[in-house]
Specification:
Layout: H1 5-32, H2 38-55, H3 72-90, H4 101-115, E1 120-121, E2 141-144, E3 147-150, H5 155-173, H6 175-194, H7 200-209, H8 211-217, H9 223-240, H10 253-271, H11 275-291, H12 297-318, H13 320-325, H14 327-354, H15 364-386, H16 395-408, H17 423-431, H18 433-451, H19 459-474, H20 487-490, H21 493-515, H22 523-526, H23 528-550, H24 561-570, E4 576-580, H25 583-596, E5 601-603, H26 609-621, E6 625-630, H27 633-640, E7 646-656, E8 669-680
Parallel strand pairs: 4-5, 4-6
Antiparallel strand pairs: 1-3, 2-3, 6-8, 7-8
Length: about 675
């Protein structure tokens, strides 16, 4: 069999989702059983990933245009993917001190990579027992029933643990840049399938240069892995549906690919609980497949059910305090999901008997779909003028937004302002208004063609992407400062805009090709397609590149944190028990001391000399050295009356991301943190 470029591009771009799914399918049960060790993961996970990556791509069908695809699209996609990974590794962040989510995921990773189980024991018996002056809960770590449960879902830490095993803290921190690059590769595959192989490099390039894709890939965020699974799921579903199979047909390559697609979709729930919302259109699509008597329906449903089952156990079995924290938004989403499943089942049963309506015969419906898509985008564009959004439901968030407004010089100061009405403008910041315009025209045309029962390969991507874009832009549900809020856009929203924009450019180029046909026009018109394709591609690429270049891409965040953390851990005695006596730093540093340094850690919110003497005596009574930690040496001096043994093993002065509300982020703020410790030896 010849290794043609089209065939190779199709198979390589399916690999990220296949590999990620295989790893999670093995790693998560190991964690649930408390056996997530390097040996067990290597013995079981490595063969599973290798086998999946060798066997499943063999089922990927050759693209229809395989013989005509040149090598240059494949080469360009490879260069873009590798270049993206190199740049992100070079600029990766060292976020280990918990301020926001990246360090929370990092602490989660370190714990399970070192210990292989959850929850995290409090080790009260090694500090001062049940002394009422001590507390154990900290940022992103919940105190429940005498144990510590880390925030968030297990999926991303299960993958970044590979980097930790291979290279310690540095290895963990450079894992996500590779995941971001694999997300770019998967998106190139989706673009190649839905638009054409020659357009895949443009789609990959625009996603690679846009600021949010670079930004999330430099931190230990969960978005890059979620992106791989959801975009990769669409890639595998496309491949599964190329061949038509009946419900009664024997198992085939199409069934295998459909099961793999469903599994990739479902496992996204192991990574992010809010993936439930994104998966609702997949349920409806399975109903349509059943009505079409397609044999891929049941394998797709089976893979989806398995992945969602693991995701629900990941949430309610290993992250229950986190889901309780999200209950105000999660419980309604679960009810909506149950309603969607019930309605889909009922509608499928009814239409199975009576047949699907011939909507293409309704003459006004294609025009209505086109108009609705365009009017929706217009509505998002004028929303800030007529419907500004207020109400975070959190005093802390209100105070933070107000502080950013004051720093940015905005007036009036309204901390309750959510800026959700600006969500379409956020997209425009990062990919350019040209991309937003082209995408709006593209989605309108795609929906029109779907109503006319053309381009059926677009049905699932359009259902999933249109639903996710609409619901996300309506309510991003995130603190609105940037680049932080761009996280909500990068998994599917920005890729959707890029994909529809590139599809429209391809459609426009084909129309110009027809208009410039030699039989109809002069020689001057023959260059029209190339001119249109080149100029429109620049209109899509340049704004995204300009925002990134002028933004936050020229520095690394929290540089020096790894070295400072290693120095802090080395400064602690082997039998130390740490008490953080500075309430201002307890939430940020307790997980680092406990998870990375491996020492029993507690906090005293408002320490008094009497409480401190009692706790230190309890620690000494257990034959352990007491270590007091604070962010300022004066705190330790005030409690101990001396600075004789006070040291500062942790000190980082570095750049950190800014926060903006009404413009793309530029420049940087300063991160300046210290940890002072004093060791009180047992018997000293």
């Amino acid at each position: 069999m010849r290794l043609l470029p089209g065939r190779l591009l199709a198979r390589v771009t399916a690999l990220p989702a296949i590999a990620a799914s295989a790893w999670l399918l093995v790693a998560f049960p190991l964690l649930a059983l408390g056996s997530f060790t390097p040996v067990a993961a290597a013995v079981l996970g490595t063969p599973a990933v290798i086998a999946a990556c060798v066997l499943v791509p063999r089922f990927v069908p050759d693209p229809p245009e395989d013989e005509a695809v040149p090598w240059w699209p494949l080469v360009l996609v490879a260069v873009i993917t590798v270049g993206f990974a190199v740049v992100q590794v070079a600029y990766h962040a060292e976020a280990l001190v918990i301020r926001r989510d990246p360090a929370s995921y990092a602490m989660y990773t370190v714990w399970i990579a070192e210990n292989g189980h959850l929850p995290i024991p409090q080790q009260r018996e090694l500090i001062a027992g049940d002394d009422p002056a001590l507390s154990y809960q900290s940022l992103a770590h919940y105190d429940r029933d005498g144990a510590i449960w880390p925030q968030f879902m297990a999926g991303a830490p299960l993958v970044t643990s590979i980097g930790y095993w291979l290279g310690g803290l540095d290895g963990m921190l450079v894992t996500t840049p590779f995941l971001g690059a694999l997300g770019v590769l998967a998106f190139a595959g989706l673009t190649a399938r839905l638009v054409g192989a020659r357009w895949a490099p443009l789609g990959a390039l625009v996603l690679a240069v846009c600021l949010p894709q670079q930004w999330v890939s430099r931190f230990t965020y969960s978005e890059p892995l979620t992106q791989i699974l959801l975009i990769g799921g669409m890639v595998l579903a496309y491949d599964a549906l190329v061949r038509r199979t009946a419900l009664t047909d024997r198992w085939s390559a199409s069934h295998t690919l459909a099961a793999a697609a469903g599994l990739a979709f479902g496992l996204a729930l192991v990574v992010r609980i809010d993936a439930i919302r994104d998966l609702l259109p997949v349920v409806g699509f399975i109903g349509l497949l059943l009505l079409a008597r397609r044999g891929q329906a049941l394998p797709l449903l089976g893979g989806l059910a398995l992945g969602i089952g693991l995701g629900l156990y990941a949430g309610y079995g290993l992250s229950l305090p986190y889901l309780e924290y999200l209950s105000d938004s999660l419980n309604p989403l679960l009810l909506i999901s149950a309603a969607v499943i019930a309605v889909t089942a009922a509608a499928t049963a009814a239409l199975w008997r009576f047949g699907i309506p011939r909507v293409e015969r309704v003459r006004w419906l294609p025009h209505a779909a086109t108009a609705l898509a365009l009017l929706t985008m217009v509505g998002f564009a004028i929303r800030p003028l007529f419907w500004p959004d207020y109400g975070h439901g959190s005093d802390f968030t209100d105070a933070w937004v107000a502080s950013v407004q004051e720093r940015e010089g905005l007036w009036p100061i309204e901390g309750s302002r959510t800026y959700y009405d600006m969500s379409l403008y956020w997209v425009g910041w990062y990919v350019g208004l040209g991309t937003v315009l082209f995408a709006s025209l593209g989605v309108a045309l795609v929906l029109r063609r779907l109503v006319l029962r053309r381009d059926p390969q677009w049905l699932l991507p359009a259902m999933l992407l249109v639903w996710t874009v609409t619901t996300t832009l309506l309510r991003p549900a995130i603190t609105p400062d940037h680049p932080w809020a761009s996280r909500r856009l990068i998994v599917l929203v920005i890729p959707a805009f890029i994909l529809f924009a590139v599809w429209f450019l391809a459609w426009l180029t084909r129309r110009c090709t027809v208009a410039g046909a030699p039989a109809r026009r002069g020689a001057a018109f023959q260059v029209l397609p190339a001119v249109v394709a080149a100029s429109a591609s620049l209109a899509v690429f340049l704004p995204a590149a300009a925002t990134s270049a002028a933004g936050i891409m020229g520095y690394r965040q929290d540089v020096g944190s790894v070295a400072a953390t290693e120095e802090l851990c080395a400064s602690l005695p082997e039998d130390a028990s740490v008490v953080v006596v500075d309430p201002g730093m307890a939430g940020n540093y307790m997980p680092l001391l406990r998870n990375v340094c491996g020492v029993p850690t507690a906090a005293m919110d408002e320490p008094t000399p009497e409480d401190l003497d009692r706790v230190v005596a309890e620690i000494h009574g257990r034959g352990r050295d007491a270590v007091l930690a604070a962010s300022d040496w004066q705190v330790l001096e005030g409690l101990t009356g001396s600075t004789e043994n006070v040291e500062r093993p942790f000190h980082v002065l570095a750049q950190m991301d800014p926060s903006t509300l009404m413009e793309p982020p530029t420049g940087h703020w300063t991160f300046n943190e210290s940890v002072w410790v004093t060791v009180l030896p047992a018997g000293g």
